[in-house]
Amino acid sequence: SLTEEKSRLQRGLAKVSQKLEDNDTESSRKVEMLQNELACTREGFDVMKHKENQLMSELETIKANHAESVAYATQQEDEFRTKLWEAQSAKLAAEKELGEKKV
Hints:
Helices cover 98% and strands 0% of the residues. It is built from 1 helix and no strands. The protein has one helix spanning 2-102. The mean pLDDT is 95.
C-alpha cells in the first residue's frame, strides 16, 4: 500500500539523514583532532627552533671565548719568546765579555 511505502521511505530517509549527521560529526571530530595535532606540531617546532637558536648562540659564545683564549695564549707565547731571546742575548753578551776578560 501507499502508506506502507511512504512509511518505509521515511524510515529510509531518517536512516540516511542519521548516517549523514554521524558522518558530519565524525568528520568534525577528525578535523578538530587534526587541528589539535597541527597546533602541537607547530608548538613543538617553535620549541625546537627556540632551542636551536639558544644552541647557536652558545656556540657563538664558545667560538668567541676560544678565539680570545687563542689570542691570549699567542700573546703569552710571544712575550715568553721575547724574554727568552733577551735572556739568550744577555747570556751570549756575558759569555763574550767573560771571554774577553780572560784574554
